[in-house]
Design goal:
single chain, about 250 residues, 3-stranded antiparallel sheet, 6-stranded mixed sheet, Rossmann fold, about 25% strand
Length: about 250
């Protein structure tokens, strides 16, 4: 589990003014759940994930970790080295690995048979699978995933939604996913954290208790639509900030 206690982040903008990116974040992320931080652009979602994995420092507050495995951060543009093949990309930086673990990571991410393939840098979905396999071979049980689907086509998104839920269920890997897409957040998540901006604050926690199919037919159900309406209503309460204009419903 990861617990945030009054976490805050401020910065100095280009004009030299002090800006509060987010403040007073009190929440927890459980290692067997998929939690989405659902917020408009500019709420500080990326900075939050970078703080969780140590790439940035918070300005205030505390983070408590109860983890026995490494946290892996996957940025919005997943990384791969175009001069290395898939296997070399996945194992990059590792001094040793178990070949069976490598083969399992390949299989669950759909990369088996592509070990010697050199990834095309514009294929975001393929590179995202490499990032997932890279995390799994490092025995990570907690992934921090930063708005990965925003530039992907519908088919790639659908396939990767199912893949993330499969990894969560079969390997018991927890995830924190940031997104500004309401439908995506509901479909993927066990827990939703709704976050406003200016400054970023968590306005509501929702446990997603609806049943989910293994395909996107779930989003057509009545209970899914009811939950979507609840989420939209929460953001509309703060519409002075025009939050929904920066989100996908």
């Amino acid at each position: 589990m990861i617990e945030l206690i009054n976490l805050g982040k401020t910065y100095i903008d280009e004009q030299g003014f002090r800006k509060v990116l987010f403040k007073g974040l009190n929440c927890e992320f459980k290692s067997d759940k998929i939690t989405s931080v659902l917020a408009p652009i500019g709420a500080g979602k990326s900075s939050l994930l970078k703080i969780l994995c140590g790439l940035e420092e918070p300005s205030e507050g505390e983070i408590r970790y109860e983890l026995a495995t490494p946290l892996i951060y996957i940025p919005a543009a997943p990384s791969s080295y175009p001069w290395l093949n898939v296997k070399e990309n996945i194992l990059f930086g590792l001094k040793r690995h178990d070949e069976q673990d490598f083969l399992k990571a390949l299989k669950i991410t759909g990369l088996d048979g592509y070990e010697n393939h050199v990834p095309y840098n514009n294929s975001l979905g393929f590179r995202f699978r490499i990032s997932l396999a890279r995390a799994l071979i490092r025995k990570s049980k907690f992934l921090l995933i930063d708005e990965p689907f925003i530039k992907m086509d519908y088919r790639s998104k659908a396939e990767l939604y199912s893949l993330l839920r499969k990894i969560n269920k079969e390997l018991n890997v927890g995830m924190v996913i940031t997104t500004s897409n309401i439908t995506e957040a509901i479909y993927l998540s066990d827990v939703l954290l709704l976050m406003k901006r200016n400054p970023g604050e968590i306005i509501k926690k929702i446990d997603v208790a609806i049943s989910k199919e293994e395909n996107l037919d779930t989003i057509k159900t009545g209970e899914f639509e009811e939950l979507r309406k609840i989420v939209i209503t929460e953001f509309k309460k703060l519409d002075a900030d025009n939050l929904l204009a920066n989100m996908l419903v």
